[in-house]
Amino acid sequence: MNAETPTPRKLRVATVSLAGCFGCHMSFLDIDERLFELIEHIQFDRSPLTDIKTVGPCDIGLIEGGLCNAENVEVLRAFRANCRVLVAVGACAITGGLPALRNHLDVGDMLQAVYGEVPNDPELPLPLNKVHPIHEVVRIDHSLPGCPPPADAFWQLLQDLMAGREPAPGLIRYD
Ligand code: SF4
Fold first, then answer.
1. Which of 63, 94, 98, 143 to probe ligand 1 with, by most ligand atoms within 8 A of CB?
2. Percentage of residues of the chain with pLDDT beyond 70
3. What is the ipTM of this complex?
4. By CB distance 3.0 to 4.6 Å, which of 67, 97, 125, 135 could disulfide with 92?
């Protein structure tokens, strides 16, 4: 009797938006019908796509957005601790991006100007003085540049990682 070929294990993938606009996630979803092919090979862990709230052991973590508050740092550290491969997705994760435009302002003055007072509800995450790219806090394995990276870049990255290849440089779109 022939031994049955074991079904390859699906890769577990987590995604999160820190100080980002969810535009990178929307671009990921632009792989459209290829999502059906993708879910034959991966399953999602924590992600806006699943609504799972805490990250567990994963093969790949995709991080959108930089770090603007203490909660962002905590989530990023949890991703690093749980994800074998961590990818900085988009300009905000790689450089701080648009949210980092506030870095020349005093955070207290800024909150005062926006809210008329400095919010002090303990439920609110503590804002950082500056917005930081994620590589300043944890080790990053790969970067996917763009604002947002195009859908084809997500597709190529995941194809490479699923095949155990070093990912090709990201596809950057300037229009
Ligand atoms: Fe949004 Fe661009 Fe930042 Fe992605 S890189 S979160 S699309 S602003």
1. 98
2. 95
3. 0.99
4. 97
